[in-house]
Amino acid sequence: EVAVHHLGYLARFLNKEGVAAKVKATNTLSAWQFQAPRGMLNESDEVALRMWHCMVLPTLGALAQLTENGHEKDRSHVPGPECLEIAAWAGEFLSANKVRRQSSLFRRTFSTKLARFPSMESFVSCFSSESEHEEPPHGAEHELEHQSDSEEDGAQMFESFLSMRSGTFSGSGLLENLWSLGGLGSSSSAPSAWEFKRGETDHGWDEADATQINVRGSNFLKDKNKNPSETSVFEVVHLDLYECEDQKGYPNISAIDNGVVKELRKAGDERFFFVVNFCMPPLQISCVFAAKGGLAGQLPPADGSKSAALLHRFVEEMSDAERSQRFKVIPWVREGPWIVQKAVGRTPAIIGKSLKVSYFHDKSNYFEVSVDIFSSSAAQRILSLLKGAAKALTLEVFFVLEGKDPEELPEHILGGFRVSRGDLSRTRGPV
């Protein structure tokens, strides 16, 4: 009975003007991609197609069995002509396409390219013959389960599936149109609603504790002693993991319309943002920091603090060359394979010495540090290690400005973030 109610609500949804056409367009695209051999698409598309083939299409096909029984008073639950057309198409497609073709040549070619990087066994193995029947990421098979007996839950499958497919219709607003047409509620683009969430231990992020990191002490230039940092200057506002629509990536993500900074502005945060943007197209990860309790459009006041005064000079006065001699990154692999921990280490690094770093400053709005990971072969090798072990890693990254004279010491961690078991197939976008 619950299943019938769910199907009835789905039929009502599809009967609304314009909705069936949108669903047909989604099915057409998915059917076209389904004809491509496995391995020719990125992992997130592969997962979406499995859900479409194994869950979405069978449910659409079941609409053909929905009768008018029990809906004498509310005819909107009875499948209309377009709804039945979709159901018939789904049944025919499933009958003709029970499985997808393989692409051994693609896997061999891609594996060979990846093998150029050291210690890539875990990543390359994803394309080996033993992985031909690899299941979707942990938990994907449960995303569309209905645990409630409320008939409104009948459309939750399409909330999950269409949200994954909507990125393919870049700029078309497919999902937003479905929501407005189908009455499923507003489709929030607020960062807090994105899948990569704060506090999650699997595919999540959080604040990292700056007090566990040693930095140069007040007398470092004399005694070389380092002491635990005070709590960080900034707090993490949001960490965004996303795929770039532009193959060149976005060195200045803060200026992109649907980038994390502008989305945070839409959500109402008016504080001055300090952004660190790691560019490794097609993937990017951007961390947005802001002062705790900070005022709109303002850096934290110096108030006699040496580290705050250095921060003001870094943002407002220094040249890019000077900035690249100051900005340090301190990584820490909390959990993960030994080889990754050894490769990454915990040594502070002035990344501007080995990587191309660009700086973007929009006064009273944001300051962005943009790091081109692909500008260094060594950084690429470490990135390859991180990608291969991402789902097993808990990684923390801290940022600090190097103090070079007594008036700039002790150092003070600007901010730090933690990534827990990131799944690189579950990125936002394409942005």
Short summary of the structure?
By secondary structure, the protein is an alpha+beta fold. It contains 14 helices and 13 strands. About 19% of the residues have low confidence.
Would you give an account of this structure?
The structure is a single chain. With 431 residues, the chain is an alpha+beta fold. It contains 14 helices and 13 strands. The chain has a six-stranded mixed sheet. It has a five-stranded mixed sheet with strand order 5-7-6-11-10, covered by helices on one side. The protein is elongated, with a radius of gyration of 25 Å. 34% of the residues are buried.
Task: Determine the structural class based on helices, strands and strand pairing.
Answer: alpha+beta
Q: What's the story with the biggest beta sheet?
A: 6 strands, mixed
Strand order of the largest sheet: 1-2-13-12-8-9
Shape from CA axes?
elongated
SSE string, helices as H and strands as E = HHHHHHHHEEEHEEHEEHHEHEEEHEE
Mean pLDDT: 78
| Radius of gyration computed on alpha carbons | 25 Å
Task: State the share of residues found in helices, binned by percent.
Answer: 25-40%
Beta-strand proportion: 15-25%
Total beta strand runs: 13
Structure annotation, total helices: 14
Ends: how far apart?
A: 41 Å
Parts with pLDDT < 50 across at least 5 consecutive residues = 102-157, 162-188
